[in-house]
UniProtKB/TrEMBL annotation:
It comes from the Bacteria. The keyword Signal applies. Residues 273-369, 387-476, 495-599, 624-721 form the DUF11 domain. Keywords: Signal. This is Large cysteine-rich periplasmic protein OmcB.
Amino acid sequence: MKRIVSALLMVFSVALFAQQPTRITIDPVAAVNPVKTQHTFVVTVYDENGNPLGGQKVEWILSRGNICVGDIVEHDDKGAIVDGQKVDKISNHYSVTYTNDGPKTLDFGNDNPNDDLNLTVGQTWCTITSPIEGETHVIAFCPGIKDASQHKVYAVKYWIDADIQWPVNAINRVGDPHTFTFKLIKASSRTPLPGYRVRWKLVEGGVPAYLNDSEENKEVEVQTNEEGEAKVTLTQINPDPGQNDIEIELRDPDGKLLAVRKVTKRWISPQMSIVKTGPAEGILNENVSYTITVTNSGEGEARDVKVLDTLPSGLAFESAQPEPAAVRGNKVRWNLGTLASNESKQINLVVKAKKTGKQVNKAQVRTDRGEGPAATAETLIGAPELYIVKTGQALARLGESPAYRITIKNRGSAPARNVIVKDQIPAGFKYRGRDTGKFALKWNVGTLQRNEERSFDYVLQTQQEGDFVNVAQAVSGGKVVHEARFTTKVVNPNITVKKRASGRVIFLNKTVVFTITVKNEGSGDARGVDVVDTLPSQLEYISSEPQGSFRPARGEQLATVRWQFPKLGAGESIDIKVTARGIAQVPRCINTVKVTSEGREVEDQAALRIQGVSAMHLSTYDTDDPVEVGQQTVYVITARNEGTSACTSVELKNTIPEEMEFVKAEGPGEFEFDETTRAVNFAAVAILQPGDKLTFKVVCRAIAEGSAKNTARLKYAEFDKPIIDEEGTSVYK
């Protein structure tokens, strides 16, 4: 007789009464299924605060009547007790279940996760079926609810010999009408079912739209035709992105509701942008090149895309790639056709500078929806006389050697004398081994004839990150007559890695999640980022996100997980999660991650302890029960380590009942019998490994009639409270 078990049951009962059920719900309330299939109803029981309540009895009743069909197939048999016996099912029309005390997944015994039911606390279930058409009326009754108006709920399942093909969710470009098709066929013969009523209703809250041929139609009813189909066309009032939800009701020819479903239409649109770039400065009568980039960053495709470039009076069209569709005066047009989502197209335009001054060039994009955004580029066309142009590498990586060219031209009407070209290079570079910033490069040009030009090339070595502006100057007669500025942005990637574990201590056979954060804290793209996570032998790889390439351990080589990323932009970071299971106890194990990029390597590690759990189980039985006065019985006590870690200083104290007298004892070591306390004290066992057990025997002689109770108390170092087990023996004369 396990008194401690009885005590626990009493505590559990008190806890249950402390939370009284007050409400019950069932899902679904109404639904339709083809015959020869099955359907599972889920009931939830709540307390007065709206919290789901576990351990509540629910009775399932299938009402019978002229049109009632259906039988119970299976149910949630957890804790179902009838007349003191645990049962699987009482009858095909009546069953009993209890609500869950914790989460539970019902997978119906197959490998398809799509039909799984994820149940929560306070829920229970029942599955029904029917081979013939008709209705199943279900009553779910919770006897624990005292309010008669709240303790039962009703649901109905319509069984029809039909295969319902509901329309699916769809995505359309804005402005394009969409037709939904509902189809109903007889499941047994696969023939259409005409005459069924399908009601389509726009749910409030979507973008303005209507059904079929009138903007007033927010709800229409269509009967299935000879093909078993019922169609409706959804049209937007305005071509705006967004979505519409449509509620679909299926009713039989007499109007009885059979099923309800919702379908969603999402409207997507293109999002056009245009960027025009070109030089800030140009030279009169020279060609100037521009780049026009048109991008559709929206979800929908852009149709009939055109670009119209309006040239100012100071610029004249020379050529373009691709060829324009039309050039009329100062207007140039390209027909780009259709741009898919996230697609870009580029136009390279070459014009000739005809006038000095600021020339503003405007390009605008159009689609079949009308005018889109515009972009402009401004170019200053310099006057004749000395003109200096500097070109080079606008973006360079630290350690690279960007090349530059300075071109000086004389566009004047007379020669320019004593011409000098100076280039003041900012600090942050090296020029032929010398640190820049304290000197200027100088070229003595001398005399430059009209329309004459000269170019000077040089190479620098980058030494620092940042934006560097150098100024090339044309000096004539000791005066600066023109200058050109050029900016080079020097970038440098800087890869860092941090690794952390979800806990510093895990128990044996439990999982831990490591989070690896790889970040580029530099100013330039990091290329060829390679991440390798090395797992210690005490951890078993479970999964990773994103999915890495796992290589199991071989010999002395530890298991690794590897990810490769072609590029990590400046300021970007990647989070990687690795899930592993502890498979061996160890006071400290280290998980190391190494990241390499362009020859640079960084690493980080996370340490944790894997420990087991010690868990003792104590049980007692008597060899003779009942026992006659003067006869002997033996109390056999077994202590087993059911944990994963050793138990130490295991000590048993057994108190014999007053109706007995001590005869002798056996155990793994020595013992003492204390006549005052009537206790047999067994010597402590130093260590008990997982799975091992200790057996103690105490032989007693019955000396008095009555109900005798033997008490065994077990203590061990890893548990600060005694484990008690009691065994009762009836003594008679």
